[in-house]
Structures are given as structure tokens and as C-alpha cells.
Automatic annotation (TrEMBL):
One of its GO terms (molecular function) is outward rectifier potassium channel activity. Its main location: membrane. Keywords: Ion channel, Ion transport, Membrane, Transmembrane, Transmembrane helix, Transport. It comes from Ascaris lumbricoides (Giant roundworm). This is Ion_trans_2 domain-containing protein. Residues 131-189 form the Potassium channel domain. It is a multi-pass membrane protein. The chain crosses the membrane at residues 7-24, 36-54, 137-155, 161-182.
């Protein structure tokens, strides 16, 4: 008979503890609120920058990759043709040309750092061989690399517009990042001082 009541009392006791913990931490929440606006704006600035870079650069990057793929395909054909002329007897084998393409694909995979298999007569696979650089994560990392001045990114702008946007983005974003870093230090110092004061008061009351 007592079990249903114990559950209610336990929940009420837990609710009391959570409420007490929340009210005890309200001062830290009040301390954090003024800082959250700057962090939120910086985060929004990061996302807008990443979206802008992706919109500007993605189409151009895909076009460059397509042109590069066509050059690679032409080089494969020229190599296969030269090999056929140098080895006319072996070239009679129907597997000669695919074998040349397979060997060249191994070299391309080594150079690209990913699987790159180009078939002799299948041009419908071109889209599958693309490796988009301006993905969502790559765009965010590039925007973040500008804000943090690390310079580490897997994609960089190749268009004139993208390069000018990157300059303007950095001119405004880097000072914002510095302000945020200074603000983080100030906030941490406030938290440490408040915590130290609270611990001191508790220790003093405990001694009394």
C-alpha cells in the first residue's frame, strides 16, 4: 500500500532538490546571459559565412572538377592509344584497353587519395567521380579557419568574388572572434571569483 505513495514522495523530494540547485545557480545564469548574445551572434556569423562560401564556390568547383576529369579522360585515351601503337599484337586482346585504364586508375587513386576508377567507355560515371569540396562541414571549417586565423581548411575560394568575400569576412569576423575570446576570459574569471566567494562563505559558515 505504501509503494505508490513513496514514488510520489520521492518525486517531490527530487523536484525540491532540482529546484534548490537551480536557484543556487541562478547567479551564474544571470552572469552568463550578457555573454550569450555575443556568442550567438558569432555562431550565426559563422553559419552565414559558411553558407555564403558554399553558394559562391560550389558551382565553380564542380565545373573545374568536370574540366579536370575531361583532361584526365583524354590523357587516358592518349596513353591507351600510344600503348596500342607500341604493342599492336597485345592491343588485339579485347581486355587490353580496360587493363590500361585499370592501371592508370590505380595511379589516379594514389594521386587523388581516394578511389578513382575510370572506365574506358563509360562516360556516365563522371558525376560519381566528383569529390565536392564545398560540403556543409568543409564550408563551416573554412569559415571557422578564417575566424580563428588557423588557415587550416580542405577548401579555399578560387573565384575572385569568393576571395574578396573571404577578405571582408575576415576583416569583420576576426575582431569579433577576438572580442569573444576576451569575453570568455572575463566570464571565466567572474565564475571563478563567484565560486571562490561562495566556497569561502560556505566554509566560514561551516566553521561557525
Amino acid at each position: 500500500m505504501a509503494l505508490p505513495h513513496l514514488g510520489l514522495y520521492f518525486f517531490l523530494f527530487l523536484y525540491l532538490l532540482v529546484g534548490a540547485w537551480t536557484f543556487a545557480r541562478l547567479q551564474f545564469i544571470k552572469m552568463a546571459l550578457p555573454h550569450l548574445g555575443l556568442y550567438f551572434f558569432l555562431f550565426l556569423y559563422l553559419l552565414v559565412g559558411a553558407w555564403t562560401f558554399a553558394r559562391i564556390e560550389d558551382a565553380t568547383d564542380r565545373r573545374h572538377q568536370f574540366e579536370k576529369l575531361q583532361r584526365v579522360r583524354n590523357a587516358y585515351r592518349e596513353t591507351a592509344t600510344a600503348a596500342s601503337e607500341a604493342c599492336p599484337i597485345s592491343a588485339r586482346n579485347p581486355n587490353f584497353r580496360p587493363h590500361i585504364y585499370a592501371s592508370l586508375s590505380k595511379l589516379s587513386s594514389l594521386m587523388e587519395g581516394r578511389e578513382f576508377v575510370l572506365n574506358a567507355d563509360d562516360e556516365s560515371q563522371d558525376e560519381r567521380l566528383f569529390s565536392p569540396r564545398w560540403t556543409q562541414m568543409a564550408s563551416i571549417l573554412y569559415a571557422l579557419s578564417i575566424l580563428t586565423t588557423t588557415g587550416y581548411a580542405s577548401a579555399t575560394p578560387t573565384t575572385l568574388l569568393g576571395q574578396w568575400v573571404a577578405i571582408g569576412y575576415g576583416l569583420l569576423g576576426i575582431p569579433l572572434m577576438v572580442l569573444a575570446a576576451v569575453d570568455v576570459g572575463r566570464f571565466l574569471s567572474e565564475v571563478v571569483l563567484a565560486t571562490y566567494a561562495e566556497v569561502g562563505i560556505n566554509l566560514h559558515s561551516f566553521k561557525i
